[in-house]
Amino acid sequence: MDIILKTDIAGLGYKNDTVAVKPGYGRNYLIPQGFAVMATDSNKKIVAENIRQAAHKAEKIKTEAQTIAAGIGEMTLTIPAKAGDSGKIFGRVTNTQVADALREKGFDIDRKKITVDDVKTLGNYEASLDLHKDVKHKVKFEVVAAD
Predict the structure, then answer these.
(1) Is the pTM of the predicted complex or chain greater than 0.70?
(2) Domain 70-145 grouped into CATH 3.30.2130.30
(3) Most buried residue among 70, 89, 90, 123 by CB atoms closer than 10 A?
(4) Where are the beta strands (DSSP E) in the chain?
């Protein structure tokens, strides 16, 4: 079943993408929630016209995402966490903590656009930033013991 996405959905696609999904997922979840519409000829024409009209705006958004990625560059964030003597932290480091550390540096990035692997010990790690459909960036962070 082909559908046209109305919003970005992690793991599936971005706004205005035409994607194939299982019929039950499309009919019972995506369409009723307002996340997608059926990929009929008329809907495809509407989306094509919307994309054509929004091309200028989309280019500006992409440029802003590239500017943010360039500003972050090779920056290494420091994230404090309570840890035991063995270096194992209590709890884990989440995308929210990475978003807060970026906010302190002057970059306001939504936590939903940050992917962090499972971090349970002190050390150096990488988080993925999904700034735009075409702009992905990795940011390094170090987990240190909090006082």
Answers:
(1) no
(2) no
(3) 89
(4) 2-5, 18-20, 36-38, 76-81, 114-116, 123-130, 136-145
